[in-house]
Amino acid sequence: MNLFFTLSYILFFWMGVQAQEKTVLPEQQRLSVFQGHWTVEGSEATYLEICDRIQGNHIQCISASKEKEGVDSSVSYLSYSPLEKTYIYYGLYTSGNSRTLRGRWETDHFIFEGQRIIPEKTTKWRITITPIDKNLHFVEEAAVNNGEWMKKADFIYKRVQ
């Protein structure tokens, strides 16, 4: 009897995965550009990020960076909300902090924006990610307390696999 329930569960799960793969929206498909193994140009020996599609047509990325103090790791998710018609980025970092950004696709690149408000300080972020060949050009800007936008990062994610 247990074998019957186990096989039924596996078949049900497999059918759900098959149905999910058939109902990928074009906006969700666009997130496929993030799938793969990545490093950062100039940090090939110390940085690795692996991104893959998970149930629900979301992309999950797990990264590890070898730092002087040890290994810095993070988990992030990229998704598309058909209800809100927006892309969503959610990152969880070793520091215990997290960040949620909302995004859109514009012609040839993604733009993600968001903010964090803590006492005495509001930080806004704008991240632009442009697919170039098999790589991703990543630019992060930040503005503190409605000040000028300052570039915080500008690098190339290189596809390893």
Q: What can you tell me about this protein's structure?
A:
By secondary structure, the chain is α+β, with helices and mostly antiparallel strands. 16% of the residues lie in helices and 58% in strands. It is built from 2 helices and 10 strands; from the N terminus they run ααββββββββββ. A 10-stranded antiparallel barrel has the order 1-2-3-4-5-6-7-8-9-10. β8 and β9 (135-144) form a beta hairpin. Mean pLDDT is 88; it is low at 1-20.
Give the arrangement of secondary structure elements:
Layout: H1 2-22, H2 26-30, E1 36-40, E2 47-54, E3 58-67, E4 70-81, E5 86-93, E6 98-106, E7 109-118, E8 121-132, E9 135-144, E10 150-159
Antiparallel strand pairs: 1-2, 1-10, 2-3, 3-4, 4-5, 5-6, 6-7, 7-8, 8-9, 9-10
Summed up, what is this model?
This protein is an alpha+beta fold. The protein has helices at about 1-20, 25-30; strands at about 35-40, 45-55, 60-65, 70-80, 85-95, 100-105, 110-120, 120-130, 135-145, 150-160. Helix content is about 15%, strand content about 60%.
| Silhouette | globular
Rg calculated over all Cα atoms: 18 Å
Helix content: 10-25%
- Strand proportion, as a percent range, falls in over 45%
The major β-sheet equals:
10 strands, antiparallel, barrel
| Spatial arrangement of strands, main beta sheet | 1-2-3-4-5-6-7-8-9-10
Query: What is the CA–CA distance across the termini?
Result: 43 Å
Let me know the average pLDDT: 88
Identify low-pLDDT runs: 1-20
Series of H and E elements: HHEEEEEEEEEE
User: Which structural class is indicated by helix and strand composition?
Assistant: alpha+beta
Query: Number of DSSP strands?
Result: 10
> Helical stretch count?
2
